[in-house]
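Prompt: I keep going back and forth on a fold encoding question. Comparing notes only helps if you start from a blank page. Show me how you would write down a chain together with its backbone fold. Please set it down just below, with no commentary around it:
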Amino acid sequence: MLLYGGLAIILSLNKPAIIGRNPDLCSYMVAGNQVSGIHCKIYAARSPTGGIVVSCQDLSRNGILLNGQPIRKTAVILLDGDVFELPDSQAFTCVHLRKQPREKQTIFDATPPPDRAQKTVGRYIVTSQCLGTGSFATVHLAMDPSKHRQVACKSIKIKRHTEIPQVMKEVRILMTLRHPNINQIYDMEDQKQFIHIFLQLCTGGDLFSYITSHTASHGSLCEAEAKYTMFQLLQGLQYLHSKMISHRDLKPENILLYTPEPYPRILIADFGLARPNAYQETFNVCGTVSYLPPEGVMALDNKHLGYVGMPADCWSAGVILYVMLCGAHPFDNEPDPTQSWVSHIQESKGTQYSQKYCQIEDKLKERIVDGSVMFSRQLWDNLYEAKSLVRKLLVHDPQHRATVYSALASSWIVSELAELEELYQSRVADSDR
């Protein structure tokens, strides 16, 4: 909740508190000559770790102050105890209510944050608030005072000198990319054992968490929202493929939401496995098995086989579309929900692969190579055009698989292209203004 004076603003999941001067548009009115009609929106949304993340999106002319630091035209994460202030007006204190006094693992957990240590890296103030961890890197919340914005600092520990070229490859690829649906890199600092990459901050979590949070629709999106999300994903992929870059690890966990609003702007993230010259065959199989195409799965166990990155991205996009619309994997037909793809993905997050995980993965590999896509009539008979696009993206032969260009020209997209582009432009404008 947010406290100001003796009053409290209680936040609800996925329902923003709108603060400003306009009584017709705001849920909480604040007076002041420098306060805009809609000054900011405060969100509480579920995070990838199952906790709650509270964020503030500045939509004003004059910005806000976060713990004394000016913030303009961007979204920021609000931690427990943070104070944000509207110019020459009201100050709010963010209070995270907690049910259990357990140890906090990341910033997105609904538990007390660790001590607020910070250090300076280049022009950035990097905090101890951890946004997430992986096998090779940790991501911390940071502030860029010169640009009046929060950023994500991805810190990669270099254990061997031979690892540097791989890390620098990701940096070089990202620094050339400028697209509304690509997670932008702002800067890089090399500090001996660590390479710090400063990235555009996204406050809405990832697409996997967003899909699974839709409990009313059994963990799937409505067709309209899935179409808008797919339209953005294809726009981002078209940009990458036009530069002959393949991502090679497309999955909902690597698609970030800029803010946690419905019909959000999405950003493709995590380019650690990306490949330039993506029209060339590679024998280095990488990515997540459940999103690999048949040729990639076969190359895992047959080192003389290779595959091409761009058709592999299109297959992954087809799997993502299927998951968005029905909340299941296209090659997952387990009658027991505990043996399902969604269950084993959630179980495996942040843990070592279990024996059950490996068994489910082996079954998925067999079905991806030899099986056909599972379409339940109850759902897919009402999604004829979407089903047609899924089929074209999940063609086993990569030479006959739909490209991003043909997917954008599909009847499912073209039938509402004007509406999609109008919403797309408004969302990008809101994010960047």
